[in-house]
């Protein structure tokens, strides 16, 4: 079992609602020891990406989709803090929220001059607190995936 540890560090921007940590990680369906020996000779991409331990995947090429997508609840017009943490073993992630600009306000527990971006690169072990302001009551796709090697 793994879980993020929240340390309340400095911030350079204000928010209305703290949504807490959102752990992103790679997931392999192959047992760890088998994967370790395969990685030594031929590194492979992860089978899936997990958001707080959740996501969907096809059990076979033609089989049903199993699992559940992770959902966050936003209040329209409010600034939300999301503590993104990459807990992967071998992948960096590109994270985005459709039709939204995110404000990054800290990196590695250091308050920084806030900057805005639509895609956030999160490398292994890096906490990236960011803020987003929901613009409407519509549902948005919030996600990402391994950004490559």
Explain this structure.
By secondary structure, the chain is mainly beta. The chain has one domain: Cupredoxins -  blue copper proteins (Immunoglobulin-like), CATH 2.60.40.420. The protein is built from one helix and eleven strands. Strand 7 (102-107) and strand 8 form a beta hairpin.
Shape: globular
* Proper CATH architecture: Sandwich
C-alpha Rg (nearest Å): 16 Å
CATH class reads: Mainly Beta
Tell me about the biggest sheet? 6 strands, mixed
**Low-pLDDT regions:** none
| Protein structure class | mainly beta
**What is the element string, with H for helices and E for strands?**
EHEEEEEEEEEE
**Average residue-wise pLDDT:** 77
Q: CATH superfamily assignment? A: Cupredoxins -  blue copper proteins
CATH level-3 fold name:
Immunoglobulin-like
Report strand %.
Answer: 35-45%
Calculate the terminal CA-CA distance, rounded to whole Å. 26 Å
User: How many helices?
Assistant: 1
Number of domains: 1
Count of strand segments: 11
Strand order of the largest sheet: 2-1-5-10-7-8
């Amino acid at each position: 079992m793994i879980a993020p540890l929240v340390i309340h560090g400095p911030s350079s921007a204000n928010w209305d609602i703290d949504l807490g940590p959102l752990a992103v990680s790679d997931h392999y369906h192959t047992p760890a020891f088998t994967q370790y020996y395969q990685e030594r000779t031929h590194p492979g991409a992860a089978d899936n990406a997990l958001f707080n331990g959740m996501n969907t995947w096809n059990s076979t090429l033609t089989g049903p989709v199993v699992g559940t997508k992770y959902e966050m609840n936003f209040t329209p017009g409010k600034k939300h803090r999301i503590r993104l943490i990459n807990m992967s073993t071998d992948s960096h992630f590109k994270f985005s929220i459709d039709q939204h600009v995110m404000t990054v306000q800290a990196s590695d527990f250091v308050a920084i001059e806030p900057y805005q971006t639509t895609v956030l690169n999160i490398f292994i072990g890096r906490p990236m607190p960011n803020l987003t302001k929901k613009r409407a009551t519509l549902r948005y796709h919030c996600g990402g995936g391994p950004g490559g090697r």
